[in-house]
Amino acid sequence: MTTEQETATLARRLEELLSRDDVQGAVELLDATHPADQADLFLRLDESERQTVLALLSANGIADLLEHLDEDVLGEVVEQMPRATLARVLDYTEMDIAVDILRLLPPSEAVRTLSQMTTAAQVTPLLGHSDESAGGIMTRGYVALHKEMTVGEAVAFLRATRPLAEEAYYLYVLDAGNHLQGIVNLRQLVVSDPKDKMQDVMTRDVVSVRPDTDQEEAARLLQHYRLRAIPVVDDAGVLRGIITADDIIDVITEEATEDMFRMAGLPGDDSIFAPVAVSARKRIPWLVVNLLTAFMAGGMVAIFEGTIAKAAALAVFMPIVAGQGGNAGTQTVTIVVRSMALGELEPRDAWRVLRKELALGVIRGVLFGVMVGVAAMAWKGQWGWGVVVGVAMLLNMLVAGLMGTFIPLGMKAFRLDPAVASGVFLTTFTDVLGFLFLLGLATILIGQLT
Amino acid sequence: MTTEQETATLARRLEELLSRDDVQGAVELLDATHPADQADLFLRLDESERQTVLALLSANGIADLLEHLDEDVLGEVVEQMPRATLARVLDYTEMDIAVDILRLLPPSEAVRTLSQMTTAAQVTPLLGHSDESAGGIMTRGYVALHKEMTVGEAVAFLRATRPLAEEAYYLYVLDAGNHLQGIVNLRQLVVSDPKDKMQDVMTRDVVSVRPDTDQEEAARLLQHYRLRAIPVVDDAGVLRGIITADDIIDVITEEATEDMFRMAGLPGDDSIFAPVAVSARKRIPWLVVNLLTAFMAGGMVAIFEGTIAKAAALAVFMPIVAGQGGNAGTQTVTIVVRSMALGELEPRDAWRVLRKELALGVIRGVLFGVMVGVAAMAWKGQWGWGVVVGVAMLLNMLVAGLMGTFIPLGMKAFRLDPAVASGVFLTTFTDVLGFLFLLGLATILIGQLT
């Protein structure tokens, strides 16, 4: 990977070459640059420079470049490309990416482009699947062999068809009806007797997914069995496509980002470099939800305004009790959400986890309850302060353990994403109940506080 | 992947077979189960059942099982295994995993085990690298070919040596001094003329890492260039090992978990199913840090106790101003930390991001400042309340944008992990300064509040 520094230098050199119309030099620079780095370079060019670069690249070269561009830039580039050029380019891109690109176009444009593609027959069936399903990320770029083929014939077939490297790691053995029978890898082919038949050398026990399997589940399977690719097979056993490890790496990265963002009340598709207006539109809705929950916490305090007027020092302990509850609960929510995402934790384990987190709540509660209770008593010189603050802390630690477990597991049970704003919901409980415990106890024991 | 349900059923059946001493049946059940699923099964067995299962498996079978076990269970199993058995098992495991296992043993035990391994010469050099460096996750299980070898000779060599499938995707072309010259993949071998030499068919432009490269950087490179494996080359250009995509998938998953946990003030190695005492020991230290920061927030409130005694309703707005600041800042911290982890954001972009997040702070500040200001004025019927609450909210939103950007970028600049407890530090600022703005303004305008 060229560093940011190097990319910036390359971009300046390319801009200079383009400004002097040194087409030869620009082409040489692009040819010497890996498409992944070309994509980084491309981001730094202005609109007209980008157009020039696209004009300098072959359809195959543009295809390589598009495969490495982020979705937002991709959208702009594709929109401005003549449909005939786009069709030629998409014939060269990996099919799962061709599908992603076609999805960026208005439906009528997508159909028009598709009609000019030579790979239309293979790409069209992929369009019908949801973006985040196995069908949506699979590619048809695999090598299929008939089960009666011999090893010698298979090698001759590969020599003649010259499949791409990334497509040829696993070879899929089918019957006449395209039903998946087994898998052969290139190594088996190389080391087997040329007269053996595919059905004799193939591995029959194949892990596969359905087209409507969620991409996260496909990722978990590939990771669990340490595979390079996983076939997508329909109800009838017909091979529909394959998902390769590099696409799974992207899925894993994306899903982790999505979970982190959702826990923080951020939409999964916000970007650090998005324009201010876009980010504002994406981030403000959850903050409005949060404001409503903050008003609930404020409302709880308002109920006890009279108590606070008598013992203003209660306000000092409000952020301590609520904040400590929020942080302890965030630890629990985070570990529960992540363990579920990794498939380690199922709703059926709820009791076991709940018992553990409540036990932790008791430990933390006693520990921090005593610490802040003693501190409060030492400061104010009255045992009432110690009891009110200490007990409120103890109870709020139990709420943290309980709600930290219950919120994400409950969301999962209702088939919601456990990550979504778990943090916001959790702190609502630890704030509202933390204030109730502290101020409620203070109201009862007010005689000991003043 | 067998579901939890199926694993439980299988475990019960295995336990039953073991209790009736049906060795034949137990072996058949294990043989029919993928090692990844055997590992899930193993977790559900008790100590003596585990020992029986290990006795039933061959050294190769145990090796497959160990490769799929989690580190904590792995530690227990390995500790109790006779050293001679362990040495035989480790000869069969992938070398990067053999190294991980040897690291679990006390040094003297590791040396004793190593001395009995036939692969000792290959595994020993791997032990010298840090656990999280490229050298620490690389394997020596690759296929090397001499640059003068012909395609025909290479195929004959592969047929004779029968390398494992996962090792044979890329073939590494070396000179007599083991310096990496280029890479050939199996496909190139299959489609090339048998008389061509390796140095003519190989790809010379190879992306590689050094042994001391951080594993995250290796993961980013593999992902950036969409590779299946990446060679590890020392300063002299000598090939030391390779890192394969499946190991990178594990790195990506681990690093994402670590970041999520660290942001929540959880150590990266806590586990949802760890014993209560272990989790308590892991989680409490950060909560103690958090308690100290909470005392800072409480201390800030204490300064203004007199003001609160005069206008107790200020306590109602304390959680609203502080909570909204904390949540807005958490959005910023999360997106900054994640973008840095993905290599999208470098400290040099600090100004650009800071300007954007401050602009967002102004938008959010004006929006929520007006909302809560108007609400406060409507409730209390005095303009002073609107000004105090609204302005405090506006200022705290600016703090959220500023500190949300500054804390993780600053930690990175000082070579600390930006994820570590960013959330705890952020809320310290939004709490302490939020209270200062709210209560400080109230003290100045106290005449308008009562």
Summarize this entry quickly.
The first copy, chain A, is mainly alpha-helical and 450 residues long. Helix content of chain A is 66%, strand content 6%. Chain A folds into three domains: 126 residues, Alpha Horseshoe (MgtE N-terminal fold), CATH 1.25.60.10; 102 residues, CBS-domain, CATH 3.10.580; 173 residues, Tetracycline Repressor, domain 2.
Structure description:
Two copies of one chain form a homodimer. Chain A has 450 residues and is mostly helical. Chain A folds into three domains: 4-129, Alpha Horseshoe (MgtE N-terminal fold); 143-244, CBS-domain (Roll); 276-448, Orthogonal Bundle (Tetracycline Repressor, domain 2). In chain A, 66% of the residues lie in helices and 6% in strands. Chain A is built from 22 helices and five strands. The first copy, chain A, has helices at residues 4-19, 23-31, 35-43, 47-56, 59-67, 71-80, 83-92, 95-104, 107-115, 120-123, 134-137, 151-161, 186-191, 198-201, 215-225, 245-263, 276-303, 305-310, 314-341, 350-380, 383-413, 422-444, and strands at 143-146, 170-174, 180-185, 229-233, 239-244. In chain A, the strands form two sheets. Chain A has a three-stranded mixed β-sheet. In chain A, a hairpin with a 5-residue loop joins strand 4 and strand 5 (239-244). The longest helix of chain A is centred in the C-terminal third of the chain and has 31 residues, at 350-380. Chain A is elongated. In chain A, 48% of the residues are buried. The mean pLDDT of chain A is 88. At the A-B interface, helix 12, helix 13, helix 15, helix 16 and helix 17 of A face helix 12, helix 13, helix 15, helix 16 and helix 17 of B.
